Amino acid sequence: MKEINKVAVLGAGAMGAYYASRFFDAPPFSAVLVARDPRYDRLQAEGLVVNGKHYAVPVVHPDEAATPADLIIVAVKSYNLPEAAKDLKNLIGDETTLISVMNGLDSEEYLGSVYGMDKVLYAVAVGIDALREGNSVTYTNPGKTLFGEADNSHTSERVRRVQRAFELAGIASEIPPDMMRTLWWKFMVNVGVNQASVAMRAPYGVFQSSPDAQALMEELMREVIALAQRIGVNLGEQDLDRWYAVLKTLSPEGKTSMLQDIEGGRKTEVEIFAGKVVELGKSHGIPTPVNRTLLSIVHVLEHYRA
Predict the structure, then answer these.
(1) Within 13 Å, how many C-alpha atoms sit on residue 276's CB side?
(2) Rounded CA gap, 235 and 48, in Å?
C-alpha cells in the first residue's frame, strides 16, 4: 500500500475541523473537506477557524470528486450518517481507508455495510475539549486518537500506514490491543458525561469537582458496564478511574458535544447513547432505569428547545 497523501474529511464540526486543520498544516498532505449544498457554499466562503487561525481548506462537492482519497475521516452526527455516507462513493478507491471518529457503537459497521469492512478501521477520539461556534472551533487539549482493527495483537499494514500519517500531521495516537473494549469504554464515557452534562447544564469543571455530578455520571456509566460484561466485553469499575484521569486534563469551561447541541438548539445523539443502552438492556435482560430517565429528559429538552 502506498503512503497516505490525499485526506478527505466528511463533517466540519468540532471534530472534523480539528482533523482537517492538522492535515492541512502538514506539508505532505493534500487535505479537503467534503460537503454539498449550503454547507459547501458556507465552507467555500468562510473556511474554518481553529484556535484563532483561519484555514481555507479546499471543499470538494461529492458529485464532482475526481480522484479517490487515501484516507477518509468521517465526523458527522450519527443521525446524518446514512445520507452523508452516500457522498463518499466517488472518493473510495482500492486503497482507501475509512476512519469514523463518530460517537456510538455502530458507525463502523454501517460504513462497512456500504463500502466493505476491509476499508474500515475502528477509532475513538479521547480527551479533546473542543468548543464550536459557527465555523470557529477552539480547544485547549487535542487529546488522542485510539484506532485500529478490531484486534490489534498483530498490527496490520493499513494501521501502520495511518499511524505514520497521524505522526506527520502531529495527531497523537495509540493502537490499543483490543479496539472493541476501547470502543465500549468511549461509549461508557459518552453515555455518562454527555448525558449528565445536559441534565445539569454542566461543563467539565462541574464533573471535576462535584460529587453529586460525578454520582449521576457514574450511575449512567455503570449500566453500560453491566451490559458490556453481559456480552463479553472486558469493561469494569477500573475503567471509571481511567476516565477520571482523562477528565482532569480537560478545560473546566469545556462542554460536551451534547450540551453544545442542546444550547445551540440542535438535535442531540441521545438515541445512540441512552436509546442504545435501553435497547440493549431489553435484549439482554439488564435493567437500565437511569438511562431510561435521561432518555425522557433529553427528549423533552430537545422538543422545547426546538
Answers:
(1) 22
(2) 38
As given in the structure block, the three cell numbers for residue 285 are 435482560
Within 8 A by CB and 6+ apart from 10, the residues are 16, 33, 34, 72, 73, 74, 75, 76, 84, 87, 88
pLDDT score for 305: 73
Geometric angle at alpha carbon 81, from 138 and 217, rounded to 5°: 60
In this prediction, residue 243 has a pLDDT band, given cuts at 50, 70 and 90, of very high
Contact at 8 Å (CB) between 118 and 92? Answer: no
pLDDT digits (tens, 9 = 90+) for 161-172: 999 999 999 999
CA 21 – CA 114 distance, rounded (Å): 27
Question: In the chain, what are the domains?
Answer: 6-177 (3.40.50.720), 180-305 (1.10.1040.10)
Which residues, including other chains, have CB under 8 Å from residue 211's CB and lie 6 or more apart? Answer: none
Q: In angstroms, how far apart are the furthest CA atoms of the chain?
A: 54
Burial letters 23-34, b for 16+ CB under 10 A, else e? bbebeebebbbb
Q: Residues 6 or more apart from 238 whose CB is under 8 A from it?
A: none
pLDDT, tens digit (0-9, with 9 covering 90-100), for 266-275: 999 999 999 9
